[in-house]
Design goal:
Length: 199
């Protein structure tokens, strides 16, 4: 199989990180690409595992050197993906999973047209609000994130797949099914079949 990037987006609190964590535990053909950010770590988050926690100077230096695949300022903090992280996973023969917002998804899919975009949606805005508030995170502005969520949800039409996250196990299973179907596409396997002389 020819590996390809997998882009997973959702509004803040939509469950994208949790869904992806479950997927990575069950599917070793996938590897998460770690995003860099200038925000501080939340409880339990580790540098290099959940995010690369950079200073603003580190981040801006990487941007100036052209090392970022995409980046944006979201909720007063910078987020971005180092390009070498994506290319490194592709060279391993695995699918890089990028957990990014809708703006980043546009940029990445423009540079990797073979990428698959999946949008994780909450069952309602009320549920989303409760999820954000339940985090008890001082970096969260619930009203701001809800306004942003409404804008992001309008971008669903630009994604290949939408997965409803009302029940986590089902959302994980649905996302896994999308990825497996994409991995089995003829166009992603034709070269391997030719090399093995099956066709």
């Amino acid at each position: 199989m020819k590996p390809f990037p997998i882009i997973v987006s959702s509004p803040s609190g939509g469950g994208k990180t949790t869904v992806v964590q479950r997927l990575l535990r069950r599917d070793k053909t996938l590897r998460r690409v770690v995003t860099a950010t200038t925000r501080g770590p939340r409880d339990g988050e580790k540098n290099g595992r959940d995010y690369h926690f950079w200073t603003e100077k580190q981040f801006q230096d990487a941007v100036k050197k052209g090392q970022m695949l995409e980046w944006a300022k979201v909720h007063a903090h910078y987020y971005g993906i180092p390009k070498k992280s994506v290319d490194g996973v592709l060279k391993e023969g695995r699918c890089p999973v990028l957990v990014i917002d809708v703006q980043g998804a546009k940029t990445v899919s423009g540079k990797y047209p073979q990428a698959v975009k999946i949008f994780i949606v909450p069952p309602s805005l009320d549920v989303l609000k409760k999820r954000i508030a339940a985090r008890k995170d001082h970096t969260q502005d619930v009203a701001l994130r809800l306004r942003t969520a409404k804008k992001e949800l309008k971008e669903i039409k630009n994604y290949h797949y939408v997965v409803l996250n009302d029940k986590l196990d089902r959302a994980v299973a649905d996302t896994a099914a999308v990825i497996r179907a994409e991995q089995l596409k003829t166009e992603r396997n034709i070269q391997d079949l030719k090399q093995s002389k099956v066709i």
